[in-house]
Write a structure and sequence with these properties.
The complex is a heterodimer of chains A (235) and B (349).
Chain A (H helix, E strand, L loop, with lengths): L2 E10 L2 E11 L4 E6 L5 H8 L7 E6 L2 E2 L5 H7 L1 E4 L11 H8 L7 H11 L1 H5 L10 H13 L5 E5 L7 H16 L3 E6 L2 H7 L2 E6 L2 E7 H6 L1 H6 L6
Parallel strand pairs in A: 3-8, 3-9, 6-7, 7-8
Antiparallel strand pairs in A: 1-2, 1-4, 4-5, 9-10
Chain B lengths: L2 H4 L2 H20 L5 H26 L7 H20 L3 H26 L6 H18 L23 H20 L1 H11 L1 H6 L4 H24 L15 H11 L4 H22 L2 H20 L23 H14 L9
Classes of the chains: A alpha/beta (235), B mainly alpha (349).
Chain lengths: 235, 349
């Protein structure tokens, strides 16, 4: 098991965002957390990558506890995070953004660039451009490429489809599948449950900070509750 | 990867040599007289301290109002050492400069360590407080060390900082900061400025990186102060009032946040502008100074919101750099890629 989250509690001030959330990810899987706005999907990812502190519970990565590890050390352990809203460095060039992604590595930079260009050829055309001038889809590609520069073992993807046109959503998701086929384990957070359940192996449904449902993606696609609430189809 | 540091460097070196030679000729022919030489030297000194603030605020996005205090700290440390132990000895002068740099950096470290853990503008408040405290301490400093002269100012520091040494130090500082800007430190600073959380997620120890920027920036202010004490006969507390920190702030903002070339051009330009205004307006300049400062800043912000150079860099100084393969090979590959993909829709969302 590459990642195991147990009874995770996270609070912002006095508001509890996660009430004892547990889930796990096996090597080579795409696991998705789906749910409505404010269900705690992003908070789960942020807790894993150390950007918010867990108030209780345990996060295990490769059977090593990382609950209290700082964010910059978690990156070094091989967890890459593509944050919600992309959070690219707008005033740096595309090249510099990618170099920031490789901040923790000392060698193999050229190879990392080549791999990213292979997945995202469009980034190569934009290398000298300031990242803030990219389109939404390109920014998403940059955010993903930036995380891949560190060659993580586990990639946390937060709402990659956000604000993108349907064609671009298709493209981004097929890239996610491609990256996964090359051996990357992915933990995907999505509001677009339809797309997420298409690519994922397994899924968890979050509602107001609790896991209410879990199973293989195929099971959840057929689940009447999921169909009604997240896939917008009558039972 | 080394190429990013050497690219453009010959041109920068040649420019420096040409400038130095030009000054020598103009100085020998008295076109640059002693008065304008003083202004030029001061402009370079002010610019060294401004480059320091440029690291802190321009590159790393940490708002500091303490630059004048660290500048003053450096002036007193280096000035005192030279005055008490140097008596015109050049080695003691250089030692004093080193001490000024180290003391300013050490004090900055003590202030920055607790505050830079926080993600907010507390640094601005803390450095402002520090600036006020330093000014008061300078006013009363003669109680502990009579040689500082307290509120009447310190005189008697040997005036041995001449153009060549100031210019060489100025040049070395610019070169050092240029290389830092092009290194992974520079990128980490700017990443913190653009999005601290994302920088964290890239593996940047943001507290460490911010502390480094602050310590280095303040150390440069200390170094500049040390030079100042040896180029201007009176070291006076009022020269380091916390309001003086706004001078540095104006230079960095007007030069364009994050632009090293902009800070250098504006720093030099600013000091000369003040002298021209003084010549034109005479005594009334002192009274109108505050108004003119504000007016100049407002004009720059309206007409050049990204700074005088519009956020651009002088290319030889900070070249735009593309990693990986050579440009030609890169172009070819891009072309085949897009043809294979059959002209994807260019812009998305």
């Amino acid at each position: 098991m590459i990642l195991a989250v147990k009874d995770l509690n996270v609070a912002y001030g006095n508001i509890l965002a996660l009430h004892g959330v547990s889930f796990d990810v096996e090597e080579g899987e795409i696991v998705t957390l789906i749910g409505a706005n404010g269900a705690g999907k992003s908070t789960s990812l942020r807790a894993i990558s150390g950007l918010v502190r867990a108030r209780g519970g345990k996060i295990m990565y490769h059977s090593q506890e990382i609950t209290r590890t700082t964010a910059h050390n978690i990156v070094r352990m091989g967890i890459g995070h593509v944050p919600e809203g992309r959070k690219i460095f707008a005033n740096l060039t595309v090249a510099e953004n990618l170099e920031m992604g490789a901040y923790t590595r000392r060698d193999g930079l050229e190879a990392a660039f080549e791999r990213v260009f292979k997945s995202f050829p469009r980034l190569k055309e934009r290398l000298k451009q300031n990242a803030g001038t990219l389109s939404g889809g390109e920014q998403q590609m940059l955010a993903m490429g930036r995380a891949l520069m560190a060659t993580p073992k586990l990639l946390l993807l937060d709402e990659p489809s956000m604000g993108l046109s349907p064609i671009l959503v298709q493209e981004i998701f097929s890239i996610i599948q491609e990256i996964n086929r090359q051996g990357m384990t992915v933990l995907l957070v999505e509001q677009n449950a339809y797309m997420a359940l298409q690519v994922a192996t397994r899924a968890y449904v979050l509602e107001t900070g609790r896991i209410v449902l879990s199973g293989t993606a195929a099971e959840l696609r057929e689940n009447p509750q999921v169909r009604a609430a997240y896939l917008g189809r009558a039972v | 990867m080394r190429r990013r540091f050497t690219g453009g460097l010959p041109f920068v070196l040649i420019s420096a040599v040409v400038f130095f030679a030009l000054r020598e000729v103009l100085g020998a022919t008295e076109i640059v007289n002693a008065y304008w030489q003083l202004i030029l030297d001061q402009a370079m000194i002010i610019t060294i301290a401004s480059i320091g603030l440029s690291i802190i605020y321009g590159f790393c996005g940490q708002f500091s109002l303490g630059q004048a205090a660290f500048y003053g700290l450096g002036a007193y440390v280096a000035g005192l050492i030279s005055k008490l132990y140097g008596h015109g000895n050049y080695g003691v002068f250089l030692l004093g400069l080193a001490a000024a740099t180290l003391v300013a950096g050490a004090v900055a470290f003590l202030i920055g360590m607790p505050i830079l853990r926080l993600r907010s503008d507390y640094l601005g408040i803390a450095t402002m407080g520090f600036g006020i405290i330093v000014k008061v301490l300078m006013d009363y400093s003669n109680k502990w060390v009579p040689a500082t002269g307290g509120a009447t100012g310190m005189t008697g520091v040997p005036q041995i900082a001449k153009f060549p040494v100031i210019f060489i130090i100025f040049f070395l500082v610019a070169l050092l900061v240029r290389n830092l800007r092009l290194s992974s430190f520079g990128r980490a600073w700017m990443a913190v400025r653009d999005d601290e959380m994302a920088a964290d997620a890239m593996g940047v120890d943001t507290t460490r990186v911010k502390t480094l920027a602050f310590v280095l920036g303040c150390a440069l202010a200390g170094l500049a102060g040390g030079l100042y004490a040896h180029r201007y006969p009176i070291v006076h507390p009022s020269s380091f009032d916390f309001l003086k920190s706004f001078d540095f702030l104006i230079i960095v903002v007007a030069g364009g946040l994050g632009s090293l070339s902009g800070t250098i051009v504006t720093g030099i330009g600013w000091v000369f502008l003040l002298e021209v205004l003084r010549a034109v307006l005479g005594q009334s300049f002192i009274d109108f100074r505050g108004v003119l400062y504000a007016l100049a800043l407002v004009l720059v912000i309206i007409m050049r919101p990204k700074g005088l150079l519009s956020g651009l860099e002088w290319q030889p100084l900070i070249p735009r750099h593309v990693p990986g393969t050579t440009p030609a090979a890169g172009q070819a590959e891009v072309a085949t890629d897009s043809s294979v993909r059959g002209g994807m829709p260019n812009a998305g969302a």
